[in-house]
Write a structure and sequence with these properties.
Elements (H helix, E strand, L loop, with lengths): L13 E5 L2 E4 L4 E4 L2 H4 L8 H13 L10 H14 L5 E5 L2 H16 L3 E5 L8 H5 L16 E4 L4 H7 L4 E7 L12 H14 L2 E5 L23 E4 L10 E5 L18 H16 L2 H16 L5 E7 L2 E6 L4 H11 L1 E2 L8 E4 L7 H15 L1
Parallel strand pairs: 3-13, 5-6, 5-7, 7-8, 8-9
Antiparallel strand pairs: 1-2, 2-3, 4-10, 9-10, 11-12, 12-14
Helix pairs in contact: 2-8, 3-8, 10-11
The structure holds pyridoxal-5'-phosphate (PLP).
The site of pyridoxal-5'-phosphate (PLP) has 15 residues, from α4.
């Protein structure tokens, strides 16, 4: 049986990974500055992560949400204190799209409304409401099309003010836009969203699926603006490759039995992975490393030949070239064995390494980049 052919593939088969490095079946080493779409947060095969998941699997790997799963409580406690949201509650799912679906559902249940405001170049996932709120008509199937979503240009406060009214259930915005080409929302824009959501009784949903979990140098990217969203969605870095996502929900939003549900979300193994990730983030002070390494790399890239703009914060970096980036990424991979990411902007390379990447790895990239551009 063939695989349903939806992914263009590199002809590379990784068979081993450690930290920021991968090795393929022919024994070639690669530097991973992309983490498989920003997923690898604490580095590939971190020993603490491997041992925690292995030990959990020896005891019990799965049971459904009809029993007590202590790993969920442990995760909620750690996540609350590390993220600075100890009074929010946690609902666990399996992916970023699913996190956003549930965020929309809560907003709609809570407000009794259905209108959603989203922004230009946004990406929120490929499922029902999440894809409808994604600014890419090419991935919206007819069944996903509806007129509940209004798109507003990103960072355009005036346009946003014009569409906000008492019919809006939720406004969704990424902490830093990822797929759209690493675009940072202005502090004043996030604050205006908070202000108008509160004024009109709408919920502010912060999609931190890509920008969260320490990637920006803060636990969540929106914390730069000092705003408190009603719901925060997260996924990618949360399990370092083990599928897990979740939403943090403001204490003013009450839960009701049956309101949300999932078979796999929050299972024993997923919680073991997510708890190990938080332990490593804390023990190795990875937020500080992400901030420091990000500053270093952004500083080194700015003003370089071939670069039009460097965007982002911490280890979520977009390098907009003065030319299409595909041949440059290709050369980085083929000649230098360096994985980078693309974006919906054809000139922009995305750099999303593990949060414990070091100066040595950044210099390998900078040298390779210079050689290719010259
Ligand atoms: C900001 C954002 N939200 C949601 C998603 C969807 O996540 P998933 O692919 O886990 O469903 C992504 C994936 O790239 C994302 O970048």
């Amino acid at each position: 049986m063939p695989l349903f052919d939806v992914y263009p593939l590199f002809d590379i088969e990784p068979v081993k990974a450690q930290g920021c490095y991968l090795w393929d079946s022919a024994g070639r080493q690669y530097l991973d500055l992309y983490g498989g779409h920003a997923v690898i947060s604490i580095g590939h095969s971190h020993p603490h992560y491997v041992s925690q998941i292995s030990q959990q699997l020896q005891r019990i790997g799965f049971y459904s949400n009809s029993v007590r799963i202590p790993g969920q409580q442990a995760l909620a406690g750690k996540l609350g204190s590390l993220s600075g949201y100890p009074d929010y509650s946690l609902f666990l799912v399996n992916s970023g799209a699913e996190a956003n679906e549930n965020a929309f559902k809560i907003a709609s249940f809570h407000t009794g409304r259905k209108k959603i405001i989203s922004f230009g170049k946004s990406f929120h996932g490929r499922t029902s409401a999440a894809v409808a709120a994604t600014d890419n008509p090419a991935i919206i199937a007819p069944v996903n099309q509806h007129d509940h979503v209004v798109f507003v240009p990103f960072n355009d406060t005036e346009a946003f003010e014009q569409v906000m009214d008492d019919s809006v259930a939720a406004v969704i915005i990424e902490g830093i836009q990822g797929v759209g080409g690493v675009r940072v929302p202005e502090v004043s824009f996030l604050r205006k969203i908070r202000e108008l959501c509160s004024r009109h009784g709408a919920l502010m949903i912060l999609d931190e699926v890509q920008s969260g979990y320490g990637r920006s140098g803060r636990f969540f990217a929106h914390q730069e603006a000092g705003v408190q969203p009603d719901i925060i969605s997260m996924a990618k870095g949360m399990g370092n490759g083990f599928p897990i996502g979740g939403i943090l929900i403001h204490p003013s939003i009450p839960a009701k039995h049956g309101m949300l549900g999932t078979t796999f979300g929050g299972n024993h193994l997923a919680c073991a992975a997510a708890n190990a990730v938080l332990e490593v983030i804390e023990q190795e002070d990875l937020l500080a490393n992400a901030a420091a390494m990000g500053e270093l790399l952004i500083g080194a890239l700015k003003g370089k030949r071939g670069i039009r703009e460097v965007r982002g914060r911490g280890l979520m970096i977009g390098i907009e070239l003065d030319r299409p980036c595909a041949p440059v990424r290709q050369a980085l991979l083929q000649q230098y064995g360096i994985f980078t990411g693309s974006s919906s902007d054809k000139n922009t390379i995305r750099i999303l390494p593990a949060l414990n990447v070091g100066e040595k790895e950044l210099n390998i990239f900078l040298d390779a980049f210079d050689n290719i551009i010259s």
